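Re: beginner question about structure tokens

> Can someone show what the tokenized structure looks like for a real chain? I only ever see the sequence side.

Sure, here's an example I had lying around. Input first:
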Amino acid sequence: MKFGHVGRVVIADDEPAVRRGLRTTVESTGEFHVAAADIVLLTGFGLDTDAERALALGADALLPKDTPREELLAALRAVRDGDAVLSPQVLRQVLDASPTPAAARAAGPGAPGPAR
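And the corresponding structure tokens:
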């Protein structure tokens, strides 16, 4: 076990086997303790719906459930260090859902647009 800064992680899933597996993965590094902490959401459902809700509720990271072990641990380290993490799939959906400056201009006067 490493000494120093140990990140705290909460795991929430409806399947006990998934919770046990994630706990083992996370705590095996000695870098994290499963407890109350930052919000890292792993989802197996539609990322577009989950991403919107999770980000609105203050999630610090959003990844699909099939995220490889090293990517999951890297995301947890980033969140522990104050960063936010979105998987490339989630980032694509967030960008696709955001109006571009050109789309905002095309919407006409009075439509919300970029700050000037």
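Each token stands for a local structural state, so reading them left to right follows the chain. The chain has a mean pLDDT of 77.
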